[in-house]
Amino acid sequence: MNPKRAWTLPVVLLACLSVLAVFPLVGETFYIQLLTKVMIMAIFAMSLDLLVGYTGLVSLGHAAFYGLAGYVLARVAPQYAAASLWTTLPLAMGACAVFALLTGLLVLRTSGVYFIMVTLAFAQMLFFVFHDTPIGGGSDGIYVYAKPELKIGGTNLLNLEDRKVFFWLVLGLMAAVYLFLRRVLDSNFGRALIGIKTNEHRLRALGFPTFRYKLASYMLSGTLAGLAGYLAAAQFGFVNPEILGWHTSGGVLMMVILGGMGSLHGAIVGAFAFILLQEALSNQAWFGPFAKHWQLAMGLFIIAVALLLPRGLMGISGLFAGKVKREPGVE
Amino acid sequence: MSEAILRAERLTKRFGGLTAVSEVSLELHVGQVHAVIGPNGAGKSTLTNLISGDLPPTAGAIHFLDEAQLAHDLSGLKSDRIARLGIGRSYQKTNIFLPFSVFENCRLAAQSRQPRAWRIFRSADRYADVNAIAERSLQAAGLGARSAMTAAALSHGEQRQLEIAMCLATQPRVLLLDEPLAGMGSQESQRIIELIQQLTPAHAIMLIEHDMDAVFAVAHRLTVMVNGEVIETGTPAEIRASLKVQQAYLGDAHGGADG
Q: Which end of chain A is more exposed for a tag (fewer CB within 10 A), N or C?
């Protein structure tokens, strides 16, 4: 990586982080909630980027983890009291890890188009489990009446019912997930994952048990998607089978591709672009009768990005920086 | 002679009706280069793939003695397991990580023997031992000055050198070199031949190569394959003198050029 850009990225990220951090102090409630949702989706998109952008596994069933974690929270939370975040969050993420382990052992035996198909199939199976059986409240879903609590002893550390506090928690977690994945991707484990994406056959011939690496990546990715799903269920206050559906999986994949695969911050940019654009295009005050057909405009936008910016929205910076081609692992 | 470190026994590979490798037996010894020669399509690369685990054999066995003198049957093992046992290979068709730097290609190869994958918070660049092995392998293959370049930007010949450097960086005891000189200039070829000679005392080397001058310069034993079968095995002198070989291979295929 050229030295000029080595500090550009941290500076830009810190600036964005600071702007986001003060936003709840000045922003309207609606926008605080909207940005909270965007940041949750950014965590979700980063988890998928680990799989798609770094391990080379395109999953169309990532909503399974997102939804599963939400349902775990909804099921274990007491009906009218707050659940403890200390127990329910690890439980939700743990359930995702176990689900990733069990399905990963099967889906990772396939690759390419088949991997897409099989991940989609598993997510749809989970969708119907919650849709058609009473364990998840059927198609109506379940309410989560109270936000989880972070208590130590008798004192509540953070009042998550306060939208601002919830916003800051999500912001902190988004930053933490970003930094965590940055470190992981620069480790021996991460380098091997990038090697798998680039040339799995060669990596195996060098002596790497690639299946185990892929399984670990799949589990980590699923577990982090579970973090996003847990936060989403806590924020919206309900879960329904929609969050497990292929629309959710497709949406998050779109965010990753839109932002630019394999750069992590691309996933964040993609989540912001996707949801904010969706919000803007469907705004009746701005687009009047066209607002109803926002998906048409969205589709055109995505096509335009795919055609003009093959490296996603993050590719824009490359255009200005004299087309420095950056590949993961060779910084 | 020392005990064979690797012994292939009646190794066979069939693809449907085609028998690519038919009951091939050979032994590799530390301190020796065993060359496998034969016309195109003789099954040499398939034989390499069988030993390295890239392809499972249809029949036969591959006995291997690891560093602790434990015997393993390699047939049926996965390629990554075989590589970790100490059998490294290079590919006939360049098979590297094109978007990575030359150094990262070798570093990753060196990392394979010291996985430490669970240390997920330590930067992969901060293992001095792994870096040193990668650096040494690049130097040995003559790529020391290319370390920071992207592998894709190397010339064809340099990519071939990188292929060998990666193989060295995994620190194998058995080297399976599949046409290492293909596409190299004469200077690079000479360097690789010298490298093979340097490596010979501490390694068992199987060399597949079409450059007969190189083969006869480094090989202690040769196996000649035609149509998947071994037609002759012996010392360079015996192979030169063999009528069967002259008829089947040296005489026809290469005419006066190599003969």
A: N
What pTM did the predictor assign? Answer: 0.92
Q: Is B79 in contact with A204 (Cβ distance < 8 A)? A: yes
Contact B250, B259 (CB under 8 A): yes
- Residue contact A198–B100, C-beta within 8 A: yes
* Fold designation for A3-320: ABC transporter involved in vitamin B12 uptake, BtuC (1.10.3470)
Compute the distance between CA of residue A274 and CA of residue A90 in angstroms, rounded to an integer: 29
- For residues B21, A111, B94, B100, the Cα torsion angle rounded to the nearest 10 degrees is -150
Structural domain spans, chain A: 3-320
The pair of structure tokens assigned to A46 is: 């980063």
Instruction: Give contacts of B78 with chain A, Cβ < 8 Å.
Output: 204, 209
In order, the DSSP letters of B5-53 are SEEEEEEEEEETTEEEEEEEEEEE-TTEEEEEE-STTSSHHHHHHHHHT
Q: Residue for token digits 């091939």?
A: B24
Tell me the shortest Cα–Cα distance from A221 to chain B, in angstroms.
Answer: 14
Domain ranges (residues) in chain B: 1-86+172-259, 98-171
A189 shares contact with chain B (CB less than 8 Å): yes
Give the pLDDT confidence of A58-114 residue by residue, as tens digits. Answer: 999 999 999 999 999 999 998 888 899 999 999 999 999 999 999 999 999 999 999
B9: number of Cβ within 10 Å? 16
Radius of gyration, CA atoms only, chain B: 18
- Distance between CA atoms of A102 and A52, rounded to whole angstroms? 19
CATH 3.40.50.300 assigned to B1-86+172-259 = yes
